[in-house]
Design a protein that fits this description.
The structure is a homodimer.
Chain A (H helix, E strand, L loop, with lengths): L5 H8 L6 H7 L1 E5 L4 E3 L7 E15 L5 E8 L3 E2 L2 H6 L6 E14 H10 L1 H27 L2 H11 L1 H6 L2 H8 L3 H12 L1
Antiparallel strand pairs in A: 1-6, 2-6, 3-4, 3-5, 3-6
The structure holds a DNA duplex (30 and 30 nucleotides).
Chain lengths: ~190, ~190
DNA sequence: ATTGTTTCTTCACAAATGTGAATGAACTTG
DNA sequence: CAAGTTCATTCACATTTGTGAAGAAACAAT
């Protein structure tokens, strides 16, 4: 999939004119192979990451030892576990690369310094968090109101790219559906 | 139910020593009879409210004209529709009193002035919003993972007070369950 | 108390989803 | 290519939940 460098992202998406030196000063590059972790359950999340390339999933393990997928992120998404990052407490979930991924990561302290130096980034940061919040509310509503089939159809429509990059059992888990049921839903839906 | 004045709340819960005059300067009292609206779908939410007494529910109307309960709030909760309040845009949902309620309300502009004058309130405000955000994530997880019966049991355990103040069909709606099913769940669960 | 109205419960049946097992397809790895 | 592994599909059946109708219970108004 396409790569979008942090520098280009800031320049073209946010119209923030910042030179590469400043970025290099605050961020460092991190590569994750498929199956490598950005953060594991129980660890403290030390960094915020910008995903230049690749794909990750957020998941946790429930009481019965079952893996539950909480979210996905792809190119040009910011990733972190907010609670853990902000309060420097143990993360309740893990973030794992399901494709080889390239990140630009920044520590909490450096982020504060960057905010001070480039205030428009703090403004953007607030917007990103707001959007995560509003997405969570919308997801609540979908899980509350829609049946399994409706959830899948909506998800597939809004995330056609993800459908092809993620194993189906992960999508099923994210939607709160048994993988076999999702399989049935798909075949019923076509014909 | 017990009333908790905004003044007492700030004093004893937040340990913010603020005199009643300042509160009166920024806030005004609003009474809502049962069935009266704090905000209706489509309107812009002009105020943030502190619920001194009473009980409200958040709801919206889905495609089929069905009412869907999104949230509840009770004494000593802050209420507003964040998107609408922050951006001054049309609210996607309504907030209605289901018990006679007393609110202390403050406009967006006054809130900014109050923040400037009493910074600890801004700090607290951020915490409140954070908690709403984290609750939304937890609710996501519950709706994703738990069956109807489990959702009800958990809700009843964590909100024994609400159970007795709200009609059962509202709780059913909030949990994404048909009212008859909730009735069955309750009787199965006891014996 | 009597009448209405609303809410809750119960029932029989329908529809949706979960579950375990079997199979086949796709993908790795040697 | 062959063997092994992982993933997706399908099936039969179990369980959960939805639905409409009927009645009971709770509540409100006169």
């Amino acid at each position: 999939m396409n790569r979008l460098s942090l520098h280009t992202y800031l320049q073209t998406e946010l119209l923030i004119d910042i030179n590469q030196e400043i970025i290099s000063q605050f961020f460092s590059t991190r590569e994750l192979g498929k199956g490598e972790y950005f953060i594991k359950t129980g660890q403290v999340c030390k960094h915020l990451g910008f995903l230049e390339k690749g794909f990750v999933k957020y998941y946790k393990t429930d009481d019965k030892g079952q893996e539950v997928v909480c979210d996905f992120a792809k190119e040009s998404d910011w990733i972190t576990q907010y609670q853990s990052f902000i309060f420097q407490t143990a993360s309740p979930l893990s973030i794992i690369a399901i494709e080889p991924s390239t990140l630009q990561i920044i520590s909490f302290d450096n982020l504060q310094l960057l905010y001070a130096q480039v205030p428009s980034i703090e403004k953007h940061s607030r917007k990103v968090i707001e959007n995560v919040f509003f997405s969570a509310l919308e997801r609540n509503n979908e899980l509350q109101v829609l049946r399994a089939e409706e959830r899948y159809v909506k998800f597939a429509k809004e995330n056609p790219d993800i459908i092809n990059r993620v194993p189906q059992y992960d999508i099923a888990s994210y939607l709160g559906i048994a993988p076999q049921s999702l399989s049935r839903i798909k075949s019923n839906y076509r014909g």
